[in-house]
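ugh ok fine here u go
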Amino acid sequence: MKINNYLPAFTAVLLSVVAVCLINISMVGCAKVAAPEASPDSTPPTVVTTSPTNGATGVAINTKISATFSKTIDPSTAVAANFTLTSTAGAVTGSISYDAPSKTATFTPAANLGYSLTYTASISAVIKDITGNRMAAAYHWSFTTGNNPDTTPPTVVSVAPANGATRVATTTTVEATFCEAMDPSTINAANFTLDHGVTGIVSYDAVNKSAIFTPSSNLIYSTAYTATITTGVKDLAGNAMAANYSWTFTAKPQPGTLDTSFNGTGMATTDVHSSNYNEANGMAVQTDDKIVLAGSVQLFGNNEFALVRYNSDGTLDTSFHYIGKVHTSVGNGSNGSAYAVAVQPDGHIIAGGTSYSGARMDFQLVRYQPNGALDTTFNSTGMVNTSIGADQAYIRALAVQPDGKIVAAGYAYDGVAKFFIALARYNSNGSLDPTFNSTGIITAEIGSSSSQLCSLAIQSDGKIVVAGNSSNGANVQFTVIRYNSNGTLDTSFNSTGIVTTGNSGHDDYPFALALQTDGKIVVTGYDDDGSIDDIMAVRYNSDGSLDTGFNGTGMLVMPPIGNSSAGDDDNQPVVIQPDGKIVIVAQGYYGSNDKDEVLRLNPDGSLDTTFNGTGSTMVTFYGEHYPIGVGLQSDGRIVVAGWTAYLSSSYDLIMRFNP
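structure:
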């Protein structure tokens, strides 16, 4: 045989084998690598509670013995061989049952236990969970019986929601806690019901001795419900409740609706001094949920600072200047109007605005004691007047720092052709703070023409954020500026301390700003396209860049929701809820009447349709209405303030909405 004759064939076979191997290697190399599997459950089950408890005495002789586990147990292991009961008199016979929802195994003795005997219950380490993990060790506990059987019916000791509770979340579970351990097999949908045909899952928490009803769908807003525990529930001794137990609660109202528990109607109006002219311009919610409005009232042809304080329920607070309202002549006894208000931690109230003495208009501050009297420790008179600019200066926003210093923001006139931004910081005694820009005052021209500030907030790090408007030469823009606590521009904010934002070709006017807990800044106002003013909101990251997590661009411009054909939305106060949702109030003109539109956005800028079903609530007024502030009370209820005019009179107005 000649080997050479076989070489071609052998070579061909060899090459084929190599090719196949290479293909397999290639396929393996290109295959998607599977994600690693989750680690298997290797945690042993444990006993978390028992009934009777370890060391218990006086235990009823007709009791059942139960053990609740940390995990769901394999029912095939919850058998008599693995759950035993013994005493000095010997082993106790009985049956074992297992309730998977409550993870509880129950030993039911075949006969009553003996009097005054000590028993030891044992759970074998053979018991395992549904993934096959056995207990790390056997579990034992002991108890001593008394001289009598348990014939006392179980009772309900607490319920949630509480009996008579109102404003209950529509996603709530309903719970009843018993005075003793219960037989889990009797805690079921037949024995624990909720009216109005509500269906759900009923479970038993052996650790807390609680029955839990979890509705299969949300409850209905503003609906009164009755929960009932029937006599079908029994304790471990087999005693049934003596009578059915029922309690009632009411689900919360639809979010975004007027809260009729506020002054009976959801709103209140106030005439400060039997005048035809009352105008609220600023609002603050105190820590005790009382509400302060600041503005002006006209008396004998002159305007005065005017404050009103309401109790949390919308009634006038008569502990404030006896009647709940006060008006103060400022300046040289001439005109003055408050446009902003802030409450100090000690309850003193600062109102800021403008006073007019005939020759000029100045920054004007007035501080009141919590009872409404002037605080004469503030500049000895309770008032401070500061001249800025040529002849005009206006406070439009106030904030109190944690150290008690007061920051005022607004604008002043250059005496020629334009306004410029103005800030002042005062010590708590009313003197200007020289550590702020060395004089206590900052003025600056922003953009190519007039610039103004309308809103102010203090960050947790002491930096001061202000919002207003400025012009780029073609259009008016949102303008946000951040200062360090010493009054210098914060160059970590947009590298210059200043950022401007506009909707191309439109004039954009901000009205308010609010700080989120994550440091982001929300500014609201309106966008003027030359015909209709639309609601506008912008959110900035803490570094001044637009937050694209808000409406995809950081900016939201939307027409009035309640009427798409016409409307002017000029005042847009804003507040951030603890859950990050954003509440904006807009004023619109519809035909012959004004409407307030309260809308709520999700944190991403989309409408929150849980709010009145659409994301928006409309309130109609006969005549004019101007919203000027929005705030939150401690329970989350939304307070909106402003003023309304009808015929020849105007009044302060306050409303409250369900959150």
